Amino acid sequence: MKHLYFSKKLILLVLLIFPLAMVAQTVTGKITKAGSGETVPFVNVIEKGTNNGAVSDIDGNYTIELRATPATLVFSSLGFTTQEISVSSAGTVNASLEESAAALDEVVVTGLGTSVKRKNLANAVSTVSAEELVGTTGQTSVDGALYGKVTGVNITSSSGAPGGGFALRLRGISSINGNNQPLIIVDGVYINNVEIPSGLRFASGANRGNEENSSNRLADIDPNDIEDIEILKGSSAAAIYGQRGNAGVIIITTKRGKTGKTKINFKQDVGITRIANPLGLRPWTRQSVVDTFGEDEALKYDATLAANGSLYDYEDIIYGETGIITETALSATGGNEKTSFYVGGSYRDEEGIIKRTGFDRFSIRTNVDHKLSDVFDFTSTTNYVRSNSSRSFTGNENEGGLSYGYTLAFTRPWNNLFPDENGNYPNNPNYPGNPLDTRDRATNEDQNDRIIQGLTLNTKLYTDDVNRVKLVLSGGLDYLANQTYVYVPEDHQGQIASGQLGFVAQGKNNFTQINTQAIAIWNHDAMEGDLGLTTQLGTTYLQQQSNLVNSIGSQLAAGQTNVSQSVNQSIIQFVSDERDFGYFGQVEGNYKDQVIATLGYRLDKSSRNGDPNKFYGFPKASVAVNLNNFDFWNIDSINQFKLRAAYGETGAPAGFGATFTSLGSSNIGGNSGQSLGGLRGDPDVEPETASEFEIGFDMGFLNNRINLEATYYNKNVDDLILSRSLPASSGFTTETTNLADLMNEGIELAVRSDVVDTENFKWNTGVQFYLNRSEVTRLDVPAFAQPGAGFGTGLGTFYIEEGQPVTQLVGRVDGELLQVGNVEPDFQMAFNNSLTLFNNVDVSFLLQWKKGGENLNLSRFLTDLGQTSPDLETPEGQDRLGQPANALRFVEPAGYVRLREAAVYYRLPSATVNNIFGETVDTVKFGLSARNIFTITDYSSYDPEVSVNGGAGLSSGIEVTPFPSSRQFYFHFNVSF
User: Fold this and answer.
1) How far apart are CA 445 and CA 352, in angstroms?
2) pLDDT of amino acid 803
3) Cα(584)–Cα(539) distance, integer angstroms
4) Where is the signal peptide (predicted)?
5) Which residue has better confidence, 1 or 105?
6) Concatenated DSSP letters for 71-90?
């Protein structure tokens, strides 16, 4: 009995002491910023060697229950140097974190389900933060906001219209016939960045759908929602994405909720936009009118001067509007230990420099993270967007009388084209189109409704002190419903001249993308002297469906604006269904943060390949060596010296329909039938495959006050898919198959520095330098002018030729084909600066330099034909008129120096905010900014960044009467509470 009684007492004693022992393991503290003493919220606090952790609250306070003592606490947060503190017992442990200029603790995505600290990264992956993206000035679209902020990324505007239109090239051209725009992923959802033709070409006489001045649909993503952007520029980094990664990958992460009290941010921008570089009128005199057009035109010139005192400046009348820009954004973020959320909404309304042009976007986003249990948690991202644009009529056409640039090239400024008192517009005596009539009565617009939904479920399958195994299931949906509408009245001069007698095109276009993936991830943490491993295995699936229907009508009934009221009606439909499936695996080893190596492999099949069931392999391998982490390193002034090398392969399947020979419908004598089209498919076509080797080093000096990143890459793209001519006896005209290889190589350099970092003055600066060189290394057909990428060798075009750059411009001069230019720059540089004075005034600017590269300026070809070029009164202009009208005459240097962005902000001191608003309001900031402030260039047209062919394919560097670029000025007001 005594023994039993003693046992009961012992059990009771243990039960009493055990909770006390548990309480005794509690550690609390406050985390502050070294130097200033400001609290640092949302810092990760981890008990080293375990998965036990906590996060500091909004005031920098944290509490953690230790599993044992002694222990080591690891404090880490983006933008700060990681700190480790030994803890021998329970109590209070405060931490003071040093800011990290290089953000070496920043986490960068290295696989479809894993990430790595930047200091251990083996590739040159560029990251753009929310502050860099939209913290300086107003931005219409994500791609436009990236200008000059990333090495190795060449961005060209394909239109100055509101709503953008940009061509992004990561490390050069990746395909000749295929897509050169990178794969874009937002919160795990594969995003459609399509350019949607409206049918405008059938009214204007343009040659191709890519000449219709369409925007690419990345414009639907609100830059205000973005937390950061990672850019995988080459195949060595993007290999894990397989046959969708040939042109690189852009990974966009939107803002998430944070534990703590709910914070609300409000932003209001108001701005104006004006034409950046008006060309002006030719300085006409009576004598020059007589010499050019004769005495009859001189009499009209005299009459106009007598009546008005000046000529009509139609460039200013059409392009001279002052557009008003407003953007309102409101967001809230908060949460607790179970659930965190981010909710953001914005509305942007941007008028253009042409009357009745503009772009508006309404966006609402909800991001939720929820912890179901210790085993399950999920994230949900939901984004609804409604955007509208009116882009009017610019770009190429064949005498349709609609494109302003064409019309103005031939319009003489002494002719009155304004409507009379009854609203009737006179005919233009010089060209089949009155630009004022087009501006005021014709319509070219689109509307987009878009839903982007992502969902991820994380399941922790196994956890111990050094191992964590989890299963990640994720899926994404991108649904886009687009409507286009083009209308030209039946009494428009160009419609009468062409016999079309009114035109209307109504487009209904639907795009659905679904992607899913399942990933098993095993993390083995490194113990003392051990090797840390991160392993992932998984599968991916992507389906893309599109259905484009365009109903076109001509010969409209008087005053009617819909297809049903037209005499001639036709329907164009394009339907596609593409499916990709893949397996992938990757292993990353980390030995003491000294040597970090990665091996990976991806197997993909696609319905667009010749054999849709055949898998193609895409390997990757990389290694990074942090010399500064070895025992022998004793150079205190160099705190980081990393050597890195990487190799990877990616692919790109053939375009939809290239693998089979299609049948075209025909109608003979009222009977429907089918006949062979001119294009023969190749059932054995292989995907284009890029292999890239990258080598470089990263260095950090003076505790990362100065950072240097240098990279060399060599990228070879094999089995390029081209079209070749066939003998007429075959029954076909062309065949599409694998016919060529090309190579890109380049250098990327970036230097960043905290030049001054004192209490009252901070100055951060950065310089970026990058160049790319391309060459066609194999061509199994005779050299040829690339279809759809120019206007023939008479005026100049992209020309595919073995041993030459893929970006060369070739024209026929004196009967011979000559390389007359190359649109690729010699190099590009960017110089960005950010200064803070007295902790309240922020000043920043971004200067960009593009050296070399040529454009083919066919706008000047047209104004020379019309005798309206502004320089024709000069000897140089007259000399040019005496030269043959070939490509050599119209190729111009397209280099420039541009002040891309500049801003100054004032942040009210905390004491002032508290006195005015009380403790409810945290920060109040207001400022002024501008975009495209000035450009120094020898290029004679509106902007050296230009593309008549949109953003796909070989597109940049050819100009035909574009929508002029604009200069924007903003006032900003931001408040958080």
Assistant:
1) 13
2) 96
3) 6
4) 1-24
5) 105
6) EEEEEE-TTB--EEEEE-SS
Separation CA 382–CA 363 (nearest Å): 11
DSSP state of 612: T
- What are 679-706's pLDDT values in tens digits? 777 788 889 999 999 999 999 998 889 9
CATH superfamily label, 126-278+320-402+442-613+620-781+823-853+894-967: TonB-dependent receptor, beta-barrel domain (2.40.170.20)
Within 10 angstroms of residue 476's Cβ, the number of other Cβ atoms is: 23
pTM: predicted TM-score of the whole model, two decimal places: 0.88
**Section 461-472 average pLDDT:** 90
Assign 261 to helix, strand or coil.
strand
Q: What is the CA radius of gyration of the chain?
A: 31
Interior CA angle at 103 toward 102 and 107, to 5°? 135
In the DSSP assignment, the letter for residue 530 is P
The model's pLDDT over 159-207, given as tens digits with 9 standing for 90+, comes to: 889 988 888 889 999 998 888 889 999 999 999 999 999 999 898 877 7
User: Per-domain residue ranges for the chain?
Assistant: 16-99, 126-278+320-402+442-613+620-781+823-853+894-967
**Please, are residues 650 and 242 in contact by the beta-carbon 8 Å criterion?**
yes
Alpha-carbon distance of 370 to 362, in angstroms, equals: 27
CA–CA separation, 961 vs 941, rounded Å? 9
Contact 176, 740 (CB under 8 A): yes
C-alpha to C-alpha distance for 836 and 925, rounded to whole angstroms = 13
Widest pairwise Cα distance in the chain: 133
Q: At what angle do helices 295-308 and 286-293 cross, to 10 degrees?
A: 150
Helical H segments across 280-359, by residue range: 286-293, 295-308, 314-319
Reported residue count of the chain is 977
CA distance 963 to 328: 26
Q: How far apart are CA 32 and CA 60, in angstroms?
A: 7
pLDDT of residue 21 exceeding 50, the answer is: no
Mean pLDDT of the chain: 89
Contact present, 658 and 681 (Cβ < 8 Å): yes
**DSSP labels, 686-743:** PPEEEEEEEEEEEEEETTTTEEEEEEEEEEEEEEEEEEEE--GGGT-SEEEEEEEEEE
What is d(CA 843, CA 906) in angstroms, rounded to the nearest whole number?
A: 9
Give tens-digit pLDDT for 468-523. 999 999 999 999 999 999 999 999 999 999 899 999 999 999 999 999 999 999 99
CATH 3.40.30.10 fits 16-99, yes or no: no
In order, the DSSP letters of 197-260 are --STHHHH--S-GGGS-PPBGGGGS-GGGEEEEEEE-SHHHHGGGGGG-TT-EEEEEE----SE
Spacing of C-alpha 168 from chain mean position:
6
Q: Is the pLDDT of residue 451 over 70?
A: yes
pLDDT in tens, 350-382: 999 999 999 999 999 999 999 999 899 999 999
Confidence class of residue 728 from pLDDT cuts 50, 70 and 90? Answer: low
Residue 101 banded pLDDT, cuts 50, 70, 90: very low
Of 607, 649, 711, residue with least CA distance to 122:
711
Which of 593, 905, 928, 697 has its CA nearest to residue 122?
697
CB 95 within 8 A of CB 32: yes
The helix (H) or strand (E) run that includes residue 415 is none
> What percent of the chain is predicted at pLDDT more than 90?
63
- Judge if the upstream peptide bond of residue 70 is cis by omega within 30 degrees of 0: yes
The tens digit of pLDDT for each residue in 224-256 reads 999 999 999 989 889 999 988 999 999 999 999
Q: Are 180 and 717 in contact (CB under 8 A)?
A: no
